[in-house]
Amino acid sequence: METIFILSAAVAGTIAGCAAGCIPGFHVYNLLGVMITSFAMPDSGNLLPPLFIGMIVGWTMTAAIPSVLLAAPDESALLMVLPGQKYAGRGEGFEAAMLTAAGALLAAFLLVIPAGLLIPILLPEIRTTLRPHGYWVLWSVIAFLLLSEWPKLGTRGQGGWRRFIEGCSTPAAGILTFLMAGMLGLVLRYNPPFPPKAALHGMMPAFAGLFAVPWLLLNIVSRFQLPRQEQRSALRASGRHILRGTAAGCLGGGFAALFPGVSGGIGGLLAGHATAQRDDRVFLVSQGASRMIYYAGALLLMFLPETGYSRGTGAFLLGTFYEANGGMNDYLPALGSIAVAAALSFLLMRPLLRLTLWCVNKFGFCRISTAALSVVIGLVFVCTGFMGLLVLAAATGIGLIPVLFHSRRINCLGVILLPAALGMSELGPVVASALGIIR
Amino acid sequence: METNDSDSSVAQQKIRPDEQAALCPACRRFIGPLDTCPYCECPAEKPVGLKLLRRIAILLAVVGLCLVYAASISRDVHAMPIGDIKPVFNSARVRISGFAAENTHVRQKYGKTNLVSFLIYDGTNFITAMAFGNCAEMIAKQDCTPEKGDKMAVVGRLSLKAGKPPRIVIERPGDITIAGRENNVP
Predict the structure, then answer these.
(1) Local structure of B121: helix, strand or coil
(2) Which residue of A has its CA nearest to B48?
(3) How far A243 CA sits from the closest chain B CA (Å)?
(4) Coil/strand/helix, residue A309
(5) Do B47 and B86 fall within a single domain?
(6) Cβ proximity of A304 and A123 under 8 Å
(7) Which H or E element spans position A19?
(8) Chain B CB within 8 Å of residue A165 CB
(9) Which of B57, B133, B171 is nearest residue A400 as measured by Cβ atoms?
(10) CA B103, B104, B110: angle at the middle one, nearest 5?
């Protein structure tokens, strides 16, 4: 009987997560935050894990839809926009979203069966080895992020200072974005301007402003019209593309799930460089796999027997209300919930894609983006009040800089990277005091 | 000549309306996102919304960040009775005032203090205050550790997990104030 309840909770969570994933700019953590704030939490503790897992896995799968068709990705889908937009521009957005979903499904399969059996054995040793080195790994990631920003301008016209300045403008915008986002992150981490009841949602206005709002605003301002999308019945990708993309994505997502401060987007970026990806199909598959391993894998870690490991916002939110017993009675249902949620959400991809395309054709890019923007702003206000709107506005300004000045939006992740790196180096409070953030 | 004219008109016909902004209005060469043509220095016409959005972005980022910073430093740390702590307050930065219910527990590893913890009671409930790493080392060295019965206040971040007693994590030695004792903290 309990199995039926757990399965029902997983299915219900998956459906809610899939629906949330189709809303551009809407993050699953927003949905979880609303549940927590409104105290709409189920009474039975045993139903919480499959519900959370279902929502997170369902959202991870279907968030590819607005990322490709409506170009409003979250921070872990930053790199998916460009190839996805190319596909959408050619009328092949359907295929792009399904490629991403294929990567996510295969990653879920690998997470449940081989990784699920090996993680409890290998992870304690891996964690003991990596733990003392976390701080310099994070600083290395930051250095790579900033140094790998390439000049996009300054390639035309007469040479000289003008061309040099034009060439430097893109990396400069990237560094400026990183530093400003980092400053915002330090303020929110060490002295947030919210009352205690909004502390749980502290980063939500920042993430919404840095990632969701700028894209929605640009959707509204731009004159882009989505061409007619072809609905193919088969993917034009070989097994080699799918497997290679999944392997790269699992590598990136696994790295992100293990290291605090590293998100799915950064994991995907690093994996892409590490595996020398060139093909757009491999890229899209890898992004789906990376997101699935990052979100679902990080949450799975909290159910590991006898480790007490906790990674990611999902585990943080769930851990506030649910105590994992740390045994197989928790771990195996969690694995099962991931499997059910991944399968169900993959099956829902096609109908949801069709529904989204119908909405885009009927209501238009601009109206959908305006509605989504209203939802995001309303959610921020409900969870964090007027101060949250102020943070949202500041973060929106920062998030618009890379978009409008042609640098990479991944630099906005300075909002978590910089505080995390300083915290792991035990310099966080020192820097925060020096900046006057805490007195 | 006729061939060139027809070629250029055919080429122009292939350009979508939204791609016109990528061409120089004078010499019709591709300039992409640049505001001034690098070839003939003619100002390029860009969509007004985009230009305005750029200026708004910079203004919003700078002014917004300053306002958030000002709001954060002007806000006093919220004083909270332990009994009022709820799960939604997880990770909130608060001030807890009360009495040390027991002597401080210090843990060392390789000769260095890596954990300092003590129990606080404020008449409503108990909470464990903890400090880790370098912060714990500094607290132990600067003798900021309370003894049983000391009246005190701590500022820190709440760490609340289901099934476990509430904890407050101290991040700086200066966040501990013990009544009747001078804190030698810069």
Answers:
(1) strand
(2) A221
(3) 36
(4) coil
(5) no
(6) yes
(7) helix A2-21
(8) no
(9) B57
(10) 140
The residue length of chain B stands at 186
Structure tokens at A199: 């502390």
Nearest Cα residue in chain B from A325: B163
- The count of domains in chain B is 2
| Per-residue CA distances from B63 to A176, A396, A412 (Å) | 15, 12, 17
> Under DSSP, is residue B109 helix (H, G, I), strand (E, B) or coil?
strand
Domain boundary among B72, B92, B117: B72
Half-sphere exposure in the Cβ direction for B61 (13 Å, CA):
25
Judge contact between A34 and A382, C-beta under 8 A: yes
A26 in helix, strand or coil? coil
Spell out the residues 6+ positions from residue A137 whose beta carbon is closer than 8 angstroms to its own.
Answer: A130, A259
In the numeric block, which tokens belong to residue A80? 């998916």
Structure tokens at A237: 């990708």
* Half-sphere exposure (Cβ direction) of A50: Cα atoms closer than 13 Å: 25
**Are B64 and B138 in the same domain?**
no
Q: 3-state DSSP call for residue B106? A: strand
Number of domains composing chain A = 1
In a domain, B10, yes or no: yes
**What CA–CA distance (Å, rounded) separates A61 from A348?**
9
Tokens of B46: 């860009």
Residue A301 CB partners (closer than 8 Å, separation 6+): A119, A123, A257, A307, A309, A310, A311, A315
Judged by a CB distance cut-off of 8 A, whether residue B48 touches chain A is: no
Q: What single-letter amino acid sits at A86?
A: K
**Interacting residues of A195 by C-beta distance below 8 A, sequence separation 6+:** A385, B78
Domain range enclosing A283: 2-434
Measure Cα distances from A154 to A145, A165, A177, B97 in Å.
21, 7, 20, 59
- In this structure, are residues A68 and A93 in contact, taking their beta carbons and an 8 Å threshold? yes
Last residue of a domain, one of B47, B72, B97: B72
| Cβ(A401)–Cβ(B60) below 8 Å | no
| Chain B contact probe: residue of A43, A204, A221, A316 with most B CBs at under 10 A | A221
Token pair listed for A23? 């809303």
Interhelix angle B48-74/A328-404, nearest 10 degrees: 120
Domain with B16, as residue range(s), is 2-72
Among A295, A270, A254, A268, CA closest to A127? A254
CB A54 within 8 A of CB A28: no
Q: What is the ipTM of this complex?
A: 0.86
- Rounded CA-CA distance B97/B121 in Å is 8
- Please tell me the distance in Å from B137's CA to the nearest CA on chain A: 12
Which neighbouring-strand residues pair with B167?
B128, B159
pLDDT tens across the length of chain A (439 residues): 778 888 999 999 999 999 999 988 888 888 887 777 665 555 556 788 999 999 999 999 999 898 888 864 444 444 445 677 778 777 888 888 999 999 999 999 999 988 888 888 888 888 888 888 888 999 999 999 898 887 766 666 667 777 777 778 888 889 999 999 999 999 999 999 988 888 888 889 999 999 989 888 878 877 666 777 777 777 788 888 888 889 989 988 988 888 888 888 888 788 777 777 678 888 889 889 999 999 999 899 888 876 767 788 888 888 888 887 767 888 889 999 999 999 999 999 999 999 998 898 888 888 888 999 999 999 999 889 999 999 999 999 999 998 888 788 889 999 999 999 999 999 999 999 999 998 7
Q: Which of B39, B63, B89 sits opposite A196 (nearest CB)?
A: B89
